[in-house]
Amino acid sequence: MSYIRTNVANGVGEIVLDRPKALNALDQSMVDDMYDVLLRWADDDDIETVMLTSGTDRAFCAGGDIRAIRDSALADDTESITRYFSHEYRLNQLIAEYPKAHIALIDGAAMGGGLGISVHGEIRVVTEKAMIAMPETAIGFFPDIGSTYFLPRLPQGVGMWLALTGARVRGSQALSVGLATHFVPSAELGGVADRIRSGAPLGEILVPSPDKHTDHPPLPVEQIGEYFSDTNIAAIVGGLRGAVGDEWAAQMLDLLGHASPTSLWVTARLLELGETAMLDECLERELHSAEKITATHDFAEGVRAVLVDKDRTPAFVPSEIDDVDPAEVSRIVGV
Ligand code: QUE
């Protein structure tokens, strides 16, 4: 029993994510199977293009198998945790360096690990049903999968905003900031996938269509830039708190109030460091941070509250942004 399916025809290798009950959350076997297939296809002269799709219309990929990681952490099974993250990040790096066209078709939720197997690739097609987010601060983790490399490279403040608040962006919004490269209406995506499978030239299938992607309002880039162009959490929160009467700022404070305060500090520091680092350095630092943070109270508690018991009331320690110990942040980040 495998959670990915593959097809090869007309020079196109397709990987179908097929774990619908977990919204295609990536477990160890999926990470390893995808890595093996992609490595094999990289040297296969019969394959010119790799296409990544979902076998369910419920989601593209909800993230990593974070419940299993929590179980390993509670059992002190650090080996399994290191194996999972090191193999996942190795897959992200392979996709970033892939010698052939790599196309992800995103027609539903893509969070965390789901972005790691798409955003590093050359082409990311989204629809109005795409829902993109990095929600890890809510579970006492941090945005990983090489996002500490690509988030700081998004327009002014957008990466920090996504990383800290876990805000969800839709297809056209993802396109506008560069997370996606193409927009196709959901109703037309099946036809586009079939044309890619037929081996037709990508340039003829994926043509920019600036007027088609007006499905959702533009992102409030001005406010994002105003409040999130900083790497210091205290400064960002101070700015939002000082914005009396700004409804958007109040909403952002509410989102930040659901996050682990320690995760917020760790996230801001990792994005700051990622700004001037290469992808491989970012992934290495993320691996260190993942090993450390999964052993903390906030991770076990955050996953419990959001994914296990689903009461959505995690008891994070400390509970206040101002009470996070900088030494603890340094210990997790490793710098
Ligand atoms: C943060 C996360 C994840 C998340 C929610 C967060 C994550 C993840 C899932 C998820 C959701 C539904 C499923 C599932 C997993 O949710 O990584 O198996 O059915 O995988 O706030 O990082």
Automatic annotation (TrEMBL):
It comes from the Bacteria. Keywords: Hydrolase, Isomerase. Residues 13-332 form the Enoyl-CoA hydratase/isomerase domain. GO terms for biological process: L-valine catabolic process. The keyword Hydrolase applies. Its EC number is 3.1.2.4. This is 3-hydroxyisobutyryl-CoA hydrolase. SUPFAM superfamilies: ClpP/crotonase. It catalyses: 3-hydroxy-2-methylpropanoyl-CoA + H2O = 3-hydroxy-2-methylpropanoate + CoA + H(+). One of its GO terms (molecular function) is 3-hydroxyisobutyryl-CoA hydrolase activity.
